[in-house]
Write a structure and sequence with these properties.
Structural class: alpha/beta
Strand content: 15-25%
Order of helices and strands: HEEEEHEEEEEHEHEHEEHE
Helix content: 10-25%
Number of strands: 14
Length: about 280
Amino acid sequence: MKKKAIAILGMVCIFCIGCGANKGNANTETSVEKKDSTEITTETNTAEEKQKPLLENNSEKVMIQCISKSAYKYNSYMITSSGGENLVIDPTAVAAKEEYDMNVAAIVSTHNHPDHVDKKFTDSYPDAQKLIHEEGSISTKDFKVTLIPSSHNGDNIMNPADNYIALIEVDGLRIVHMGDCGQTSLTEEQLAQLGEVDICFMQYTNQQSGIKASDGTAVKVMEQLLPKRIIPTHYTNDDLSYLAEQYGKIEELNNVMYADNDELSEESQKMYRILNNVTYQ
């Protein structure tokens, strides 16, 4: 009887441990779902797809890469000129220089929210030129960057502004990162400064900016700006069908986009999703 009781007790313990493990996994999955609830999570990101940011650009075109490891996968990018110079826009959860040296010449942040700034990364490149959420311009060998005041929520632009639109000029292209611009329309002054835009990073759903894709706010702003290519930043899975209705079939790219004037001259208001498969392992 004693042996039988011990055996039964052992089976009960194993069952309890198993339930505890299952419960722990369920809790973990729920917390991840909540964390990513405002961001796209449809790509599989398998081990085979993951890659470190590319350190060489042999394409003779401008190269744009996702570089963030955070839940906000689509805010942070490295833009590389055809000559190989690197600029990082809105870094968050990016490997510092001592972890993975990307030889960055310039670092730009559109505003001071934690999903658009990365102090550890920025400080690790003391010699890089920096324009950190303030009005002004910087120039490197291949890049010129201008930050233009805008509003994070609504049309009232504060002084100093709570969001800046970044105009990045490189290799004859005009690339714009809107940060978290939540304006219902751009001002005439902003439009004049931005001019003709080739590529634009734009948010579509962001509670803190008071906008969601289906209300058409971001679409209307893009109709003012008329970029040839649009790269969405803040958006959700539920937005994809609506965005496809606005822009046609959405082109999906694994982590990297290449662009030059010849390609862009034939495009008009096409959306590209650069799927974030970045790793630093």
